[in-house]
Amino acid sequence: MYLIEKTAEFDKWLRKLKVLKAKAKILIRIQKLETSEHFGDNESIGDGIRELKIDYAKCYRIYFKEQEGKIIILIFGGDKSTQNKDIERAKLILSSLKNYIMETTKFDVADYLDSNEMIVAYLNTVLAEGNDADVIVAIGNVAKSIGMSKIANETGLSRPSLYKALSDGSKPQFETVMKVLRAIGGQLQINPSSEEMAIS
């Protein structure tokens, strides 16, 4: 598991992003980086910086640096249309970090789940693209964004039990998952796929 840090520049960029599904995809990509060390499509752009590619809509990019001790610093973000400018910006920010002009803070997915619409986009995206472990971690992030004490009160579970059940690698009982989903205002629904089902 990686420890994910962010710069103020990265935080500002991500918070300003208006396309909720794009933001959800970015959050899930970073979540996978943190929990399963899955980098996906990425390449070096020099100065120890790597560019992580998210091929959705405007083809978003995340610029990061991997440090010793399994620490990843999220430096800056952008998209394909401003790629060259964003790369130069990322290199300048990294230089500021090296010169102790700028500091980093811990990245937490829950900090960006700041509206019902964002939570819905995030959960729908992880259900469509993630595996079982991703979904459990995502539900935990949503619970944190709402407040673990509130979720504990509504589910009848203790906070330590909730943290344990919704942590990476855990396999909570289905009953526990349903209690948490109801507490956060969610529900499971079955919808037809995009492909029509053949009827004989």
Name some characteristics of this structure.
single chain, 200 residues, alpha+beta, YaeB-like fold, 2 domains, six-stranded mixed beta sheet, 6 strands, 48% helix, 18% strand, disordered C terminus
In the CATH scheme, the class of the largest domain would be Alpha Beta
Roughly what percent helix?
A: 40-55%
Q: Uncertain regions: pLDDT < 50 for 5+ in a row? A: 195-200
What is the name of the CATH architecture of the largest domain? 2-Layer Sandwich
- Could you tell me the mean pLDDT? 90
- In the CATH hierarchy, the third-tier topology of the largest domain is known as YaeB-like fold
| Number of distinct helices | 8
Given the helix and strand composition, which structural class is it?
A: alpha+beta
Strand order of the largest sheet: 2-3-4-5-1-6
Beta-strand percent range: 15-25%
What is the count of structural domains? 2
Tell me the Rg in angstroms.
Answer: 18 Å
In N-to-C order, the SSE pattern is EHHEEEEHEHHHHH
Largest sheet: 6 strands, mixed
Shape: globular
The count of strands amounts to 6
A few lines on this structure:
48% of the residues lie in helices and 18% in strands. It is α+β, with helices and mostly antiparallel strands. It has a six-stranded mixed beta sheet.
